[in-house]
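[recover] target loaded
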């Protein structure tokens, strides 16, 4: 058996600014060689203008004859794009074959008839990166940047004239003893074509064992739906054990057999008026909003770094859901969410603005493209079918809801709004609740928002964000307040039976337009910075992980008595999932402090708060006089599990350099993050030590961004990007006065050739 021939077509592209349609049949004379995923302009970290990339660009690729060796007679050649920002024209040998609008959805082009296969076939791709008013999300103002380029993978596939375009696996009665599985198969075939086909569908369990097979012979122009024999107890897809099954379709046609595989999972997901139910059990959503941007590279980051984000969200930060604000994100990201059991609320592109009829027609295409791409992903539990925070527009949103339900009756719809009393056309009332400003109510009651006199399925989809932008390097008091607001809202969500959960704004800081953010083109709304380096508030969520998974203890302090207004260091919040914390000041006896259930009665793991209830501030000495270090030890079941120690007199002691990966593959261009920290003698970052660090690299990788940069708040981020060669990469980081640090990683030879 041979799976269909498909290869990545990411290498050997030529790139230049500008595009002249008349020249689309000629190789450009002055392009630069690039590898996809690619951003049209690598932007500075901040203080830049989007006009840098709001332009038209050209990508070209000569299709060498070796590409055709894989092709069997009579097969079709398909170019598949996972995402091109923002509007893209595909030419082959000077002929325009397709225009695709919208930067977040995949599309494919059958290029067979335009080919000569003489080794000189030329793909010319016109990429318009401007914020064109005719295409969502554009037309109004956006609080984020969209960058530009062929920023996701491109594939070249060879298929028979009749082939599987996509399949949909529908499961029913999943919690019963008679679980139904139906697979619907959608074909590509020439117009008005009809032949007898043979469809064999195999169901494979998570270990890859064949569970059952069904077979059918029929005409190719009739809808294909096959039912597998009922299952008694399939292994459910659950966040803690995300079992994935697979269907394998063997499609027998006049030309041969097309083999296509699709993963899926058995689970139920339902929002009700009294909360969200996953596999029949009440499940409180603790979510985070994610943009898909990175410093310098914008959106152009391949699957590995996408997967790192998903892992970070679930395993390091302790969230159980991610909202893909405000557009469909990469397939690699969604598939990683399937693999690790992270729930997804996926939504169509858009931000506050609704355009004209043509624009709205594109919204409908976006709904369809998003759903068809991801309807087999068990992680996706809700379709967002309203432009984020747009005003009511019942005609449009009746249609988006109708279409979503018709395409996928197995999932509910949501539509994120920020206006109260808006028409509920979706299944779930999804509300950005920015009411909390520090000393007022924490979240609205749902009926106050909906204007209804009964409860409905209700989810808080954003909070905090612009209400309290906080930089990783802000002063302690601000960080403290940032933490408190996240704690209070999360606690309130846990305490409200009629709120399915809450989704914080947002995962990381992001570059934005001039009318948003802090004047430097960054919105500092993240619980991490743009490099995904944690602010204190990140531990609000990380500390909600059960201690059996990871004991967490993080004190929201710089431990410096003069840092706060009027001096002092209490109240001191210790974010922890431990049963209690032992606090020791200098050599005074340790004191046991329990989680603060008075103020946070609903959180799975309330923080320990050192304040006048647990310590006498006077015992911590007077400002300007003797000042001592502290030790905090977290206990679970009376066993010391984790600790933090702070020095009274912190001094620069060492530089730490870490990479997210130790092994990368030379198969594709890959990115790994570098984190550099200036540490004191206790291993804590020194928030006000800002020396310049110099980076140099040897081996098959380059440094993305500047090679000299300051530590900011004691920390700096950078990236290494591989150059497609195998070998040993060494990164050296130097800081005047310190021994330089060298870290290494290995780029390994690809196992098999999958790309060209
Ligand atoms: C919301 C919006 C987000 C972001 C956030 C900042 O209104 O949906 O995209 O701008 O505000 O808090």
């Amino acid at each position: 058996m041979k799976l269909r021939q498909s290869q990545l077509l990411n290498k050997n592209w030529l790139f230049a600014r500008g595009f002249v349609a008349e020249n689309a049949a000629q190789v450009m004379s002055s392009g630069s060689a690039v590898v996809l995923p690619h951003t049209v302009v690598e932007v500075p970290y901040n203080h830049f203008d989007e006009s840098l990339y709001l332009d038209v660009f050209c990508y070209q690729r000569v299709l060498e004859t070796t590409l055709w060796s894989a092709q069997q007679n009579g097969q079709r050649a398909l170019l598949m794009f996972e995402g091109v920002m923002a509007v893209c024209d595909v030419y082959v040998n000077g002929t325009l074959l397709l225009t695709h609008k919208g930067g977040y959805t995949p599309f494919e082009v059958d290029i067979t008839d335009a080919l000569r296969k003489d080794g000189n076939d030329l793909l010319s791709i016109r990429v318009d990166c401007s914020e064109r008013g005719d295409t969502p999300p554009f037309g109004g103002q956006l609080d984020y940047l969209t960058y530009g380029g062929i920023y996701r993978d491109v594939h070249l596939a060879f298929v028979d004239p009749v082939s599987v375009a996509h399949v949909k696996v529908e499961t029913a009665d999943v919690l019963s003893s008679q679980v139904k599985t139906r697979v619907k198969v959608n074909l590509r075939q020439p117009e008005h074509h009809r032949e007898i086909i043979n469809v064999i569908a195999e169901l494979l369990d998570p270990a890859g064992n064949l569970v059952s097979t069904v077979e059918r012979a029929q005409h190719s122009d009739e809808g294909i739906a096959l039912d597998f024999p009922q299952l008694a107890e399939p292994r459910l897809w659950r966040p803690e054990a995300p079992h994935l099954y697979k269907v394998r379709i063997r499609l027998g046609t006049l030309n041969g057999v097309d083999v296509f595989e699709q993963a899926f999972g058995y689970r139920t997901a339902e929002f009700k008026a009294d909360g969200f139910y996953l596999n029949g059990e009440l499940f409180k959503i603790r979510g985070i909003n994610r943009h898909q941007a990175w410093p310098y590279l914008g959106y152009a980051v391949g699957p590995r770094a996408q997967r790192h984000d998903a892992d970070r969200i679930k395993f390091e930060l302790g969230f159980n859901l991610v909202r893909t604000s405000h557009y469909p994100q990469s397939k690699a990201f969604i598939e990683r969410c399937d693999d690790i059991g992270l729930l997804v609320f996926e939504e169509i592109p858009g931000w506050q603005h609704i355009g004209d009829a043509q624009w709205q027609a594109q919204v409908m295409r976006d709904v369809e493209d998003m759903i068809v791409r991801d309807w087999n992903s068990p992680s996706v539990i809700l379709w967002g079918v309203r432009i984020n925070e747009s005003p009511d527009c019942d005609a449009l949103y009746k249609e988006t809801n109708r279409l979503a339900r018709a395409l996928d009756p197995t999932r509910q719809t949501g539509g994120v709004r920020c206006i109260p009393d808006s028409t509920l056309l979706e299944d779930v009332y999804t509300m950005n609740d920015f009411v909390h400003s520090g000393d007022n109510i924490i979240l609205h009651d749902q009926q106050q928002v909906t204007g209804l006199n009964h409860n409905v399925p209700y989810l808080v989809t954003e909070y905090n964000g612009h209400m309290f932008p906080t930089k990783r390097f802000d002063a302690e008091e601000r960080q403290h307040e940032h933490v408190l607001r996240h704690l209070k809202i999360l606690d309130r969500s846990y305490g409200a039976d009629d709120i399915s959960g809450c989704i914080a704004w947002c995962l990381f800081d992001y570059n934005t337009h001039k009318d948003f953010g802090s004047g430097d083109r960054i919105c500092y709304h993240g619980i991490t910075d743009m490099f995904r380096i944690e602010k204190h508030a990140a531990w609000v969520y990380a500390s909600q992980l059960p201690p059996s998974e990871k004991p967490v203890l993080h004190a929201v302090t710089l431990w410096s008595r003069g840092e706060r207004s009027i001096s002092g260091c209490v109240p001191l919040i210790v974010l922890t999932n431990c049963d209690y914390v032992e606090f020791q000041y200098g050599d005074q006896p340790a004191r046991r402090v329990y989680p603060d259930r008075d103020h946070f009665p609903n959180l799975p793991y309330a923080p320990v708060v050192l304040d006048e209830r647990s310590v006498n501030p006077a015992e911590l000495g007077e400002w300007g006089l003797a000042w001592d270090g502290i030790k905090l030890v977290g206990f679970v079941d009376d066993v010391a599990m984790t600790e933090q120690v702070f020095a009274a007199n912190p001094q620069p002691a060492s530089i730490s350099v870490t990479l997210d990966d130790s092994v990368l593959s030379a198969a594709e261009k890959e990115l790994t993050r570098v984190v550099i920290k200036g540490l004191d003698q206790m291993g804590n970052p020194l928030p006000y030590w800002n020396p310049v660090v110099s980076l140099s690299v040897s081996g098959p990788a380059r440094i993305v961004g500047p090679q000299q940069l300051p530590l900011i708040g004691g920390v700096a981020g950078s990236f290494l990007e591989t150059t497609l060669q195998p070998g040993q990469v060494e990164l050296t980081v130097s800081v005047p006065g310190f021994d330089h640090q060298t870290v290494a990683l290995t780029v390994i030879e690809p196992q098999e050739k999958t790309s060209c």
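[recover] notes: Residues 143, 388-389, 418, 432, 462, 465-466, 505, 525 surround beta-D-galactopyranose (CB under 6 Å).
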